[in-house]
Every structure is written in C-alpha cells, then in structure tokens.
Structures
1.
Amino acid sequence: MRSGLVRTEAIVLSKLKYSDSSNIVSFYTRQRGKISGLMKGARSIKSKSGLATDVLNIVELFYYEKEGRELYTINSAELVYHPAAVLTDLVALACATSVAELLKELTVPHEENERLYRGSDKMIRLMDSPGADPLTLLLRYFFFILEESGVGIHFESCAACGSAITELEQVRFDSGYGILCGNCALEKRRGIKISMELYGLINCLITGKRYENGDPKLKTDLLGILETYTRTHFETFKGLKALRILGDL
Ligand SMILES: [Zn+2]
C-alpha cells in the first residue's frame, strides 16, 4: 500500500458516533475503494467536515494514508453533492440507502474500482433527479454491482451449460447459478420458475432497454430474488435493511 496525502472523491456509506466529539465514517472512494476514517471533532455543529459527511453525500476527502493502517484520520471533507430530493421521499431514500448498503457489503477495503465508483455516484444523482423511478434504478444498479463484483447475472444464456436461452417458458432462476435453461434446471433439480414477464424485466434492466406496462409487483419480486442470490454469494450479506424498514411502515 502507498503512503502519503490522498485527495479523492468519495460517497459517504455510513456514520457511527465515536466518543463525545468524533465520528467513524465509512466511505467508498474513487481512488482507494472502501475506507474507514476517524473524523475528530466532527460532532461539533461548527465542524464543516462533520456536516458534509452525512450518509449519501458525495464529498472530497483529504487524509494521510499510512501503510498497514485500517482506520485513517480524515483531515477534511468538503461537500461536492447533497441529494436533497432523495431525503424528502421515503421510497427514494430507501433505494438510495440500499445503494450505499450494497457498496458497503459487496466491496472489500482498499480495492479501487473506477467504474463502480462512477456508476454509484451517477446512481445517487439519478435517484435525486425529478421524475426518477428509484426502484427501477435500484434494480438496474443491483445487476451492475453484481457484475462488478464478479458474480454477474446473464439472461441470454444458461449459467450452467452456456447454451442460448430459447424456450422462455422453461427458464428458471437459481440462487447459486442465476438463469438456468429448462434442461439444466430439470437435471440439477434446482431453481424457481420465473414468468416470461419477469424474464423480460431482467432483460430490460441489464440491457438498459425501457420496460413498459409491467405489474409493479414484478419489481419487488425481483428485488427479493436478487437479495437471495446475493446472500448465496456473499456470506455476510443479510439483505437490504433500508428496504425492510420501508416494508415495516
Ligand atoms: Zn443449461
């Protein structure tokens, strides 16, 4: 690992009180991936860095990087973007918080991924824009981060045998493999049957095509399927907490 002063953009993932005056903040940075930082004095109302580091804000960080250190002392954090509209809409807030949760759960510390940073930064801004459909954006992001994490789901071919998916009525989804063709599902006795509508939705979300006239329940069903798939691939992932809170309301 390198040593020296780091200046990087970052998304605030979580914030924890530490002592009477300080916070421990988790960031996903553009240049260093996920890091944790101690922000001394951040709980004072006079601290600009403290005010800038609310969850989901995008900030510019300055800190000194030292070999072997797990927790850095953050020198300063300047606000770059504050998703004000997201904070006034419960569904948008739950979906944007889910983006932060996925980044925190699916990435390993100090592993840089410029594409993932850009996609996550863009997603928070999109969810914050007028007329946004946060649930569709979250589903799209879910496929994106799974792909960036090396466990992407592919809709055009069977995850087990690799043959092209042709008989849509036979398609199944398995929490280990992903999409399975009818033959493999039968042979392995795995996977749940998915409707052609759900398969169509997955296709649109991955390719970025517009999805028209779908039953809104399809999207919440798909979210549940993706959470189960993610739990299978990431032992520590326990599902999206922000969405569960929304469900309890
Ligand atoms: Zn197959």
2.
Amino acid sequence: MTLADSDATRLLRPAAPLPRPKRPPLLSALRLLRANPIDAFSEQAYEAGIIDITRGRNRVVLVNEPAAIERILVDNAQAYAKSEQQQRRLKPALGAGLLTAEGAEWRSARRVAAPLFSPRAIAALGDDMAVAADAMVARWRDRADEAAPLDLSAEFQRLTYEIVSRTVFSGALDDDRVRLHAHMAIYFDTIGRIDMASVLGLPKWWPSLSAIRARPSIAFFRGVVNRVVDAREAEDRQEAVDLLDRLMRAPDPQSGRTLATPAVADNVLTFLSAGHETTGNALAWILYLLSLFPSVERRVRDELSSLASGAPGRKDIEEKLVFTRAVIDEAMRLYPPAPFIARVALEADELAGEPVAKGTEIVISPWIAHRRRATWEEPDRFRPERFLPDAEERPRGAFIPFGLGPRICIGQGFALQEIVIVLSRVLPAFRFALAAPDKVFPVARITLQPDGGMWMRARRT
Ligand code: HEM
C-alpha cells in the first residue's frame, strides 16, 4: 500500500479492527478476548440485533438492536443487574461505590451523589478545570524540543486525573497524588484484561492471577483514602470545599442519613477511577480524528475562539458550540471510551424478538452498537454532521457512550464540560500532527485506549 493509499483508507475508515469474516474458534477467541476484545467479533456480530456469543458455562448474548438496548437499560432495567464478570473485576477496589453498588445501597449512594453533579455544581468546577488545562499548555509550550512527539493519551490522562483528584480532594492528596495515579494505572491494566476464568464462567473461588497482582494496589488505595477521610472527620470544617466534604456531609434526601465512612471511601475511589481514564481517552481520540480531518479541526477551532474568554460552560456547549459538540459525539461514537456494558438477566425476558432466559449474561457494546450496519449509514466513517441538530433522529438505544437509564453515567456533564474546556485551551495554542498515523490502533481494556499511546507533534501556533 502506498502512503497516499493508506491516508485515503484512514479517511474512509479511521483506525479500527476489521470484523472477522467468521466467528473465531474457541482458543483463538480466548486469546483475542484477552489481547483486545474488540478484535474478537465477526461480521455477523456487527449486523445482528442479538447474537449468542457463549464460550463457557454461562449463556452470553451480545445485544445491538437499539430498542432492545433501551429495554435492558431503561424500560425493564429492574430485571437486569450488573454482571458477575464486571463485578469480579471492579468490586475488590470500588466496593459499594456508585459504579458497583446494587439495589438499596446504590439508590442511596446515587441520591447522595446526584447534587454533587448538578449543572450548578459542575459549572462551579469550570475555573479549576481551566487552571489545570492552562498548566498543561504551559508545560507543553516550555518543552526544550518542540519536535519531539508527545503521548497525548498519557498527557490527557495525567490532566484528567489531576482535575478529578483536585475536585474530589482539593489539596489533601498532594503527597500521594502521583503514586495513587500510578497504582490506579497498574490496577486497571491488570484487571482490565478479560480473564479466562470469567469468560469460561469458572467459579468465583478460582484463583485469578490478575486479582493477586492487583492486591498491593488495592491496599495502597485503601490506605490513602482512609487516611484522608479520617483526617477530614477529625478536622470538622464548617464549609464544604470539595467533593469529599460534600460526600461526607450530604444526607440521603429520603432517609436523612449520611453515607458511612467505608461507603464514602468507595465512592471517592469510584469517582477518581471512573472519572479520568474515560475522559482522557475521549480527548486523545478527538485529537486523533481532528488531526486526520484538518477542515473539521479548523471549524472547531473557529467555533471555540468565538467564545468570550474564561472557561466555556454548559450554556456555551448548548448554544454556541453546536459543531464542536457534534464532533465530540461522533468521536465517542467511533471510539466509545467505555466499550462494554455488562448485565445479567434476573428474570426471563424477550429481546429483539428472542427469548432470553433468567441468568443469561448480557453484553452491550457501545463499540459494536455504534458501528452496527443496520443502525448507522457508513458506520465506520467520521461524519460529525450526523449529530447536528437538523440530522435525522435516532432511537435512544443507538448512541450510548454514557449508558442509559437509571445507571447512566453520573459524570456525563462533568466530562463534557472538561472536554470542551481542554479543547478550548489546546486547539488555539498548538497545531497537532500524528507522529506515526499507521501505528494508531484502539485496544479495549475497561476503557478504549490507543495501543502504545497517541503520539503527536504539537507545534506552537
Ligand atoms: C467521556 C467520559 C465518560 C464516559 C464515556 C463514561 C461512561 C460511563 C458509562 C457507559 C457508564 C454506565 C455503566 C453501566 O451502565 O454499566 C458510566 C457510569 C458511571 N460513571 Fe462515567 N463516563 C465518563 C466520565 C465520568 C466522570 C468524569 C465521572 C466522575 C467524575 C464518572 C463517573 C461514573 C459513575 C460514578 C458511574 C456509575 C453510575 C451509576 O451506576 O449510578 N464518569 N460511565
């Protein structure tokens, strides 16, 4: 393939594995699922409304049809719980935090946390987000060798971690912030890989190497978070300055009770972990697509520079950044930062015209649903216009980067504001070019990451 050919191919189909012509046999499927789950699916999986993908003892179905996705996540959500597979990986670290809690425990935690993510609360965080983004821009500007490529994926993760940890803890973590981030990366890299035991449905007591490897990181998380929570309790401050304070004080609007200390610690870790890798990766993929499509980049930059100075907020996003918002949505369609959502059926149901027995494991993959042939026209192409306000309406279950229904991402508004603020800082300051366009490739762990990083040259404007 000549360079021009590969450039043209990328424009038609930005980096993505090709669907496999046939369902891979068991052993290669297990290898693929462990190496990169989005590379394990057949052409048929990208077409079907529902398809059996069982590999072990438990029946597993992949659900793609928008109406069926809506049924699982919204209309009949009480008949589905978070899957054992996912809980097995996340619960050891996140305990009864919002992402992993179920039933009454989840309802109470969600009620307590909701006001912390209200539009007003998020708007109040705008300046902090902008200060952190400005510091990153200054660091990039001051680099001795401007031509040396930067790994935007690592850079954005550092930034989004900085933002969420400041929002949660303000200054309390300063000494441990870097080490906590490093342990988080180890933990999610270790347990982020699908392990054979869960694909094959082996019992819970089956020893998992990942779980053993992840133990020191969990001990570290617990140590740091418990220490900070204890120190806050002893301080007895008058005013809440950050999310941690508010989480410790906020009463459940129904019961009037505040969260117990272990639940506060679980939620703090949940916000830290759920709140940075996803947003960091979303930013890296947005920059990737903008660098492939310079005319789109120009339009986004123009739109952002038309704003008044200061940190853009929700009103700007809704009223002025119409094209930018469409680009963000289209980037999250092609590269959904959370590529898999998993549930288990608590009772028998019917999905996409097929009976589903109680106990069936359900996989909803934003990666696949967002590229389903029957749902999207030219699904592999980058076409932000499909998200402009005058575009044809889509069923709700077609586009699900943040999930849907009662368990929809609580941080959606936080993430969108953060993405827009970061873009408003970096796009006017630098011209980005991919260091090795052919090397960019998505790999699914718990989040969808660029394999080996997203290396770009950033030249000052
Ligand atoms: C682009 C960025 C983000 C994406 C794509 C994303 C995606 C998701 C998805 C798909 C879910 C639903 C999972 C399910 O139904 O099983 C979820 C839940 C959640 N997310 Fe996010 N997320 C992002 C940013 C954030 C941020 C910034 C925070 C916090 C600061 C956050 C905190 C959470 C929490 C706590 C839950 C669990 C909610 C519940 O079950 O009640 N996320 N996220």
